[in-house]
Design a protein that fits this description.
- The complex is a heterodimer of chains A (94) and B (481).
- Chain A is elongated and about 55 Å long.
- In chain A, helix 2 runs antiparallel to helix 4.
- Chain A contains four helices and no strands.
- Chain A has one domain.
- The longest helix of chain A has 34 residues.
- Chain A is mainly α and 94 residues long.
- Chain B has a single domain, classed as Sodium/glucose cotransporter.
- In chain B, 62% of the residues are buried.
- Chain B is mostly helical and 481 residues long.
- The radius of gyration of chain B is 22 Å and the shape is globular.
- The chains are: A mainly alpha (94), B mainly alpha (481).
- The interface between A and B is large, with 44 and 53 residues.
Chain lengths: 94, 481
């Protein structure tokens, strides 16, 4: 887990701590749930059409409880892609 | 045996089992400060998950969510929105906070401000604000517990003695077992509550309406408008939804106890994977809404929406089931309260008392002081609960308005080299001041927006402006010793 990437490691061996910025791709993936469950509220806050007996707004938010992990799984893959290779070389488990 | 005796016996048995687990959790370890606050930094995916999930499933979710579904209607959806998005935010910041925590051996949230901004007065201010805004959250748990005992005893037991007993137990296992005790009680409580919640959420709409669909149809006929925002309120519309979701999303991991919980993890990767799966865990939350909605049709004239969950359970199921649910509910009050007490006490002792008042204290003395403060805070929160009349959700929103003011200092502290100590100090002070003035003056929401969110915007603006005006070149974390 320490050996994240070459450049990263160098940074972390510095005398001070520097946070690693997330990649643009993973931030964009994180913005999808924000748009869907927050900013677009006036588009989905209605009762009809009922889905599975639920008012549409209830259905929509429950749906995003399921879809958010999918988006973040994608972000996870993006964030750890660089990290997994050196780990494998060193006999890591990932 | 009468119904209230059955229910109360089962509640006491579950609470006793929880207390037993809590006391045993840390009994085989030497409890130094590091073990007590961060569990020796050795919690794997499952323990971190249980600890963090245990924190999310509080009395608030259990009684407060159904309570707002009952009394306010659709605005309650904000709870689903923000919990889901808070995990998205945690995905990006918690692994970095954990890394900083490991590098500098951080134990509390205020420690982070110390290594980033290197000013003991800012650190003490962070600790003080954290402790102050933890009190409404503690109050929320205590109130919930009182409600449970009152309903389960059919009004036979006044809530005050029940609250005192339960919180004496909490203070006891926090002092002896620290965070390990808390994590193990959390396991027990999640197990009981999860199944009880699923069962009630599915059964209640079925028994009275033949399903969730017919229940919503009946509600739409009986109370048109309850199911879309602003529901049964006048001022909780879409702009309130967006501002409140954003405030709580950014504020969520600024709660000192959540922030601190990330230090218990074994690795940053544990936290990142945790963030990916956590939204699935709150899938039972909408079931709480269903119960509140059903109660609105079945028991339309409750004085307090927060009673709706327990009153409908009492009306529908046998007393032993009310006991099981009440017992699980009591644990959901006690586990988060334990975490909150532990965090507040360590902040107070380590980041406020030691650096400002008694710089020569040893770690052992800090640990001892923290345990005394656990008792003092318990008494303070119990005392203020007696005079409180806000809804559970209302209490939580006050707390969020306060702790979210840490967000600019944390996020800019991590990712910007230009943010300065004076900028963060000025911004945070402005944000806390505006939040307190608006909320104490009952101006929340204001102009359709959440008051805490407005305070957060001012906070960001002041932080940025002061940092740029009083620029000292590159700022950054302290050198690693």
């Amino acid at each position: 887990m320490l050996l994240q990437s070459g450049a990263h490691m160098e940074q972390r061996n510095d005398q001070r701590f520097h946070a690693k910025r997330p990649s643009l791709g993973s931030i964009l993936l994180g913005l999808i749930p924000f748009t869907a469950a927050c900013f677009s509220v006036s588009l989905w806050d209605r009762v009809h059409p009922l889905v599975l007996g639920l008012p549409f707004n209830f259905f929509w938010l429950i749906l995003w409880l399921l879809l958010t992990p999918l988006c973040m799984w994608g972000a996870y893959r993006l964030e750890t892609r660089g990290a997994s290779e050196p780990q494998r070389k060193n006999g890591g488990t990932l | 045996m009468s119904a209230s005796v059955v229910a109360l016996t089962i509640i006491s048995a579950i609470v006793a089992a929880g207390a037993f687990v809590g006391f045993c959790g840390g009994s085989h370890r030497k409890m130094d400060l590091e073990q007590w606050i961060v569990g020796g930094r050795g919690f794997g995916l499952l323990m971190v998950w249980l600890l963090m999930a245990g924190e999310v499933y509080t009395t608030f979710t259990f009684l407060g969510a159904s309570g707002w579904a009952y009394s306010r209607g659709a605005p309650v959806l904000y709870i689903v929105g923000y919990t889901c998005l808070a995990y998205v935010v945690s995905f990006y910041i918690l692994p970095e906070l954990w890394e900083a925590g490991r590098r500098y051996r951080l134990q509390t949230q205020a420690d982070f401000f110390q290594v980033r901004y290197n000013n003991k007065y800012l650190t003490a201010f962070v600790a003080l604000v954290g402790v102050i805004f933890l009190i409404p959250y503690l109050q929320l748990q205590i109130t919930g517990l009182g409600i449970i005992v009152e309903v389960a005893s059919f009004g036979g037991i006044h809530r005050t003695p029940a609250m005192v007993i339960a919180f004496a137990i909490v203070a006891g296992f926090v002092s002896t077992s620290g965070i390990r005790g808390v994590a193990w009680v959390s396991v027990l409580k999640d197990f009981v509550l999860f199944f009880a919640a699923v069962f009630v959420g599915v059964a209640v709409p079925h028994i009275y309406f033949g399903g969730v669909g017919p229940m919503f149809a009946a509600l739409e006929r009986a109370k048109p408008g309850h199911l879309v925002m602003p529901g049964s309120t006048t001022d909780l519309g879409h702009s309130w939804y967006i501002s409140t979701v954003l405030l709580c999303t950014f504020g969520f991991y600024m709660w000192p106890q959540f922030f601190g919980a990330s230090f218990t993890a074994k690795s940053g990767d544990t936290l990142r994977r945790n963030a990916v799966v956590m939204p699935l865990y709150i899938i039972t939350l909408p079931l709480m809404f269903f119960v509140g909605m059903a109660a609105l049709l079945v028991l339309p004239r409750l004085a307090n929406g927060d009673l709706s969950m327990l009153m409908i359970v009492r009306k529908t199921f046998p007393p032993w089931f009310l006991g099981v649910l009440g017992g699980a509910g009591a644990l959901t009050a006690m586990v988060p309260a334990a975490m909150q007490l532990l965090t507040a006490a360590s902040l107070f002792a380590k980041n406020l008392c030691r650096p400002i008042l008694a710089p020569r204290m040893t770690d052992q003395q800090v640990a001892k002081l923290a345990k005394i403060i656990v008792l003092a805070l318990t008494c303070a929160a119990l005392g203020s609960t007696v005079f409180n009349s806000t809804t559970l959700v209302g209490l939580l929103l006050v707390g969020f308005g306060g702790v979210a003011q840490f967000f600019p200092g944390v996020i800019l502290g991590l990712y910007s080299k230009r943010v300065t100590m004076s900028g963060v100090f000025a911004g945070m002070a402005t944000g806390v001041l505006i939040a307190v003035v608006l909320m104490v003056g009952k101006h929340d929401p204001i102009m359709g927006l959440n008051a805490g969110f407005i305070a957060l915007c001012f906070n960001f603006a002041v932080t940025a402006a002061v940092s740029l005006l009083m620029s000292t070149g590159d700022t950054g974390f302290a050198p690693i010793r």
